[in-house]
Amino acid sequence: MPASLTVWILSALLLLGVMTQSWWEPRLQARGINIRTWPWRWWMLGYPRTVLRIWWTWRQLAMLNGLSVSRRPNQRVMGRDLVVQGQALRPKAPRLGWPVPTRNGVIVRVLMHPGQTPAPYLSAAGAVEHAWRVHAVRVRSPRRGQILITATANDPLTGKGSAKRPETLALLSADVGHTEDGPSWVIDLRKVPHWLITGATQSGKSSLLAALVRSLSRQPVALVGIDCKGGMELGLFGRRFSKLAIDRKRALVVLASMVEEIEHRMRVCRAAGVRSIWALPEERRPIPIVVIVDELAELYLHDGSRESRDEAEQCGTLLLRLAQLGAALGVHLVAAGQRVGSDLGPRVTALRAQLGGRVAHRAHDEASAEMTLGDLNPDAVVIAQTISEEEQGVAVVTTGGRWMRARSHLISMADVAEIAVVPGPPYPFLSVVETASEKGETEK
């Protein structure tokens, strides 16, 4: 009787919801809730099937991968001088929590046995993928004694990148794509001030830079570009860049002006008795500047002549100073290149150490992925090498000791043309304003 009553109640509620859909759906959309984008197919069919598979296979999975533990000792004394040692019978699997559904998978919490570490669970991630028949499994330990298993049912990054409009975020936060877990891929320059983006030709670096420019163009942020490919990429954004260098000689001038700008901002902060521009009152705070460098290696290569070597050395020095001093003063660096290794010079290694955010697209060899991700997260190096040529725009992102797969938004030429006619913020550079005022006082 209770079971049949429950079925009747659920059926009545479902019928009522369908009949009143024309009333409640527009009201939900007015509040930003679009139920048509919810993964109904996964929640109604995929999720229950995956939950049954998890509960059905967990005991055997834990036993075969060394996750089960027996409470009985694995050795016994036989007679006076004989000890028999073997595998204890009836091992107990770790306690499994209820699988919580996400937009494209499940999250399962596991309570470890006393004395266990996360290492065996990390090693068993591949076996979990096959047993649960999911696309990917991520294992981490957010709390002592607990393991959090995040299973992704299908790869959300296999299709073409999303072309949706970026969300309006806080200052210096850019919505550049979406992650494999579903939420937006946000680059927050306030949290991670400098970024390094690498990848082979046609891997998606330019698409990511375009998505970054589109998101930042809606904010009161000055953009400075260095594109040594003759401005073929960044030059398309026209007036939105306050400064743009299309070769190394002009890049040297732009970088020198950015270091000069940093020194002017230092004097302002020192006069106000603060450590960063973010501690200044909003009306006195300088406009943040994001310096975007495409094809970083072009600034370090030389033809062997004295002049070329001097230019490369000066560019390396200025970039390093910008990365070391700019974060607290609102000057941020985003550098992109195919390969950023020590073969370009010792200053490249020093610069790479200052770039805390790392993005690795498809690489031709292990060394290239190792240069980008190896010093922050060695596990991500293997994942970066699995990106195929068909997955243009897919990358491995690592910040704060963790990594994730993500894909940047597709930016159409119509979007680029729309951004190109929007001018940057007026008077973003303190060095120019102060120099002009000093010249005016001299003329008086």
Description:
By secondary structure, the chain is α/β, with parallel strands linked by helices. Helix content is 38%, strand content 20%. It has helices at residues 2-19, 21-30, 40-64, 119-123, 125-132, 205-216, 248-272, 306-325, 346-354, 366-373, 378-384, 413-420, 430-443; strands at residues 75-78, 82-85, 95-96, 100-101, 105-111, 136-140, 146-152, 173-179, 184-188, 194-198, 222-227, 241-245, 289-294, 331-337, 357-360, 394-399, 402-408. The longest helix is centred in the first third of the chain and has 25 residues, at 40-64. It is globular. The N and C termini lie far apart (97 Å).
In short:
The chain has 13 helices and 17 strands. The protein is of the alpha/beta class.
